[in-house]
Amino acid sequence: MALIEFTKRGIYCKQGDFYVDPWWPVDYAVTTHGHSDHVRFGNKHYLCHTLTKPIIKRRISEELQVETLNYGESIVRNGVNISFYPAGHIIGSAQVRLEYKGEVCVISGDYKTEDDGISDLFEPVKCHSFVSESTFGLPVYKWQKQDIVFDKIKSWVTDNIHQQKTSVLIAYSLGKAQRLIKNLSGNVPIYVHNSIANLNEVIIDAGVNLPQTIRITPETTKDELQKGIVIVPPAMRDSRWIKNLSHAVTGICSGWMQVRAHRRWQSADAGFALSDHADWTGLIAAIDATGAEKVYVTHGFTAAFSRYLNDNGIESEEVMTKFGQEDDEENKADMAAQSENTKI
Amino acid sequence: MKRFAKLIQQLELSNKTNDKIAALVDYFNYADDKDKIWVIALFTGKKPRRPIKSALIKYWAIEITQTPEWLFSESYSNVGDLSETIALLLPPAENTSDFQLHKWIEDLHDLEGKDDEAKKAFILNAWNTLETQERFIFNKLISGNFRIGVSNKMLVNALAKQSNLDSAQIMHSIMGKWNPYEITFSELINGVHVNTDNSWPYPFCLAYALEQEPEKLGDISDWQAEWKWDGIRGQIVKRNGELFIWSRGEELVTEQFPELHFLTDVLPDGVVLDGEILAVQDKQVLSFSTLQQRLNRKSISKKQLEEAPIGFFVYDILEYETVDFREQPLSERRKILEQLIGSLAESAVILSPVISCKNWDELAEQRKTSREINSEGIMLKKLSSHYHSGRKRGDWWKWKVNPYTVDAVMIYAQKGSGRRANFFTDYTFAVRDGENLVTIAKAYSGLTDKEIKEVNSFVTKNAIEKFGPVRTVKPELVFEIAFEGIAESKRHKAGLALRFPRILRWRKDKKAAEINTLEDLRQLLESTL
Q1: Can you give the residue range of the structural domain that contains B70?
Q2: Which of A218, B158, B176, B279 has its CA 20 to 30 A from that of A242?
Q3: pTM value?
Q4: pLDDT tens digits, residue range B90-104?
Q5: Helix count (H) and strand count (E) of chain B?
Q6: Cβ neighbours of residue A211 under 8 Å, at least 6 residues apart?
Q7: Does residue B452 contact residue B420 with C-beta atoms inside 8 Å?
Q8: Is B78 in Cβ contact with A268 (below 8 Å)?
């Protein structure tokens, strides 16, 4: 019997009677990370990484019943050994390793292989079967090193300040925002939207070292913002608040910005291909490193990526999931955060 | 090339005309003169000759990246552009280069006549020295398609701003015939070439659709009403004994229409006429589908000449006795035109009639009869109006009759290209034919971004089969399709084809059982022949 099966509620381990990132309420949910398409309201118990706990409590409810593990630690449920390894996606993101009677299965959640300076670096785990995302599973998605991308962002900001324009970066409140803060911190002050500032507090309280930022309040002047970097979540993108800034120019930081068609569709003033997902090269390298005999491909270019693996001697199968609508889901989360935090 | 790459990036990133013009002005301020010539050439569709077939470029890219062909296709369908797909697939460049744009174009030009090995060596070496964005542009130089949302008008405005010259003059100049390998930038924008060139046309004056009640235009006696003919807008230029026929697409189509060649002998020199190329028999306009038999053909058979004889309905005169008449009021131009064309009474060149009406109501009644004479409606032109360059609001209006419509059901969907590459935006529609559905049109415009997302999610959930990028979907969504005409067609299973079909609206209120039938369309076809 296979260790996991794919059900309408999500990835299910029958032997251990738990789900990984289920999208319908279950008794026991193992949670890879805090993005809202991976962790939902209504499960009786949650198991996640230590750093993910305060995040989901903050984002979903303080009432959640949450158990935690650090990377490398494990617990056993009905004979199934569950342990976490860094996925490199965002702070607290984990790959879930399951072992039962010598059989090992790893569920990657979302991951990236580049060191982003803030999440623990992705660690390949040997396994028999591997569940991999494929958000950017096409060979046209190959990222430049993040230093190059950050240099581009910095020079964009410098130009903007010089031209009296306000630099507004659009980034998810959880993950991308902290990565930007960590890597852009320097001479230019960084101003963040409430929803980001709130998460930052939670993350700093949990012991993560995050550079200082300034929470945007009604008292923050346009002039201050013009001389800084403004980071807001996607829900704010077309807001009147941005339109009222002095000559706001928006920059979107997302892997999709690699392709012109997406840049234009998003109608931002600048697009930076900066992703928290593995690129094509990263996906292939990660899968190779697991030595898995079987790879289940979820959200993304599942059909193409799975076919490529099969053609190259790695048995693979595409699996339908409800992940990968991160755009919409994160948007909703940000939107909710925004309404709860009133105006800025 | 780096400067040009930056320009393209700036143009693509902004939707605001002013930003685009600013980027162009900035470019024209600092770029090399020879490069500027090529930028104007590329943006106005003067493509450098293709030295290498796109298929070869694709093949070489596949070869050096060792990408399976199917994976290349998947990538292409996501990216939506061949040049860009290749640019993204290639490994990072190992060397650098910093040649100017014109140097690359000249080097590519020099490849002509060389064997494939030499071409390949050049291309591979170039790829290995260029950054992704430069590579993309380099590939575009080979394939020759620069569609980046810069209209001629925008380009001309930028040039006018940068050079302090009159924009109409620049438009005139860049629309004429010039060779980017020979002309200098200063010669081009000053229009040195156009005086020596007999063929140069004027920019067409275009009209906006009338969206208000015609009464709001004021007194009808200030206006000239004409039929809006459904053919190919054309400009006839006669200078120094030579005749040229230009189409709206700025193409010379003189050879395609021998019926009009007699004008070389009868028109005086220094005359430019604006009008419509139509299929005409006994001074009656025939349907557009008849005219279509005559379009884009290299040679014309005797049969085609007989079945689809060509005529030219004249609207306006732009030049007379070598003098530019465009600044004269329409009423004056019309007088000259009547004298000039009146003398050609028995020919295929016909003065497009003015519709005389005492009031707007009377004209509205006349408009209802448009279809009977194969007209698309009415043109309203202010009698005092100049002949403007391009589209200008206020003096000329098109008051078209409503298009034909049909309710049809979506049966296939395909992902779009360009900015719509990740959404299902190209749909195929069918009507009922007894128990079956038969396709009648493919259309991709007319929905809002929000509707596109909605249809996209329907397609994702209701796809029945995949054929490459195409999805067969459950026949459930009903759309009202507008179209301008209908013609018999042996190529289509339905036996007929719709002209310029587009989505008018999504009929969420209708079920698939309520759509039109093929018989309905056949009856419409009969009535238009």
Answers
A1: 2-143
A2: B158
A3: 0.70
A4: 999 999 888 999 999
A5: 20, 23
A6: A181, A182, A185, A190
A7: yes
A8: no
Please check the confidence at residue B385 and state whether its pLDDT lies above 90: yes
Q: Which of A257, A259, A305 is most worth mutating to test chain B (most B CB atoms within 10 A of its CB)? A: A259
Over residues B377-401, the mean pLDDT reads 92
Own/partner long-range contacts of B179-184 (Cβ < 8 Å, ≥24 apart): B180/B37, B180/B38, B180/B40, B180/B41, B180/B46, B180/B48, B181/B109, B183/B37, B184/B33, B184/B37
Contact (CB<8Å) B12/A260? yes
pLDDT value of residue A328? 42
- B136 to chain A: nearest residue by CA? A260
Task: Tell which of B20, B66, B75, B466 to mutate to test the A interface (max A CBs under 10 Å).
Answer: B75
In a domain, B162, yes or no: no
Q: Does A308 touch chain B (CB under 8 A)?
A: yes
Domain tally, chain B: 3
Tell me: do B294 and B408 sit in the same domain.
no
Interface of A with B in 90-119 (CB under 8 A): none
Q: Are residues B408 and B345 in the same domain?
A: no
Q: What is the pLDDT of residues B395-415, one digit of tens each?
A: 999 998 888 889 999 999 987
- Which residue, B93, B112, B143, sits at the end of a domain? B143
Residues B384 and B410 in one domain: no
Query: What tokens appear for B83 in the block?
Result: 């040049």
Compute the nearest-CA separation of A207 from chain B (Å).
Answer: 39
Q: Residue A338: enclosing H or E segment and its boundaries? A: helix A326-340
Give yes or no: residues B389 and B413 share one domain: no
Residues from chain A that touch B70, judged by Cβ atoms under 8 A, are 307
Q: How confident is the model at residue B138 (pLDDT cuts 50, 70, 90)?
A: very high
SS3 B57: helix
Q: Are residues B426 and B384 in the same domain?
A: no
* Residues B269 and B383 placed together within one structural domain of the fold: yes
Pick the residue from chain B with its C-alpha nearest to A312: B68
Active site residue B228: yes
The verdict on B250 and B388 lying in the same domain is yes
Mark whether B246 and B295 lie in a shared domain.
yes
For B300-329, the pLDDT digits (tens) are 888 889 989 999 999 999 999 999 999 999
Is A311 within 8 Å of chain B by CB? Answer: yes
How open is the CA angle A266-A271-A273, to the nearest 5 degrees?
115
- Give the nearest chain B residue to A303 (CA atoms): B74
Q: Two tokens at A134?
A: 């494929």
pLDDT bin (cut points 50, 70, 90) of residue A243 is confident
A65 vs B490, more confident: A65
Residue B426 covered by a domain = yes
Asked, for residue B281, whether it belongs to a domain, the answer is yes
Sign of torsion, CA B73 B79 B81 B86? negative
| B88 vs A140, A268, A307: nearest CB | A140
